[in-house]
Amino acid sequence: MTRPALLPLAALALGAGAPAPAPAKEGASVTVTVTNLRNAKGVVRACMTTAEKSFPKCRGVAGAHAAIVEAHEGKLTLTFEDVTPGRYAIALLHDENDNGKADRALGMMPKEGFGFSRDAPVRMGPPSFSDAVFAIDEADKAMTIRMRYML
Question: Per-residue pLDDT tens for 20-34?
Answer without folding.
Answer: 555 566 799 999 999
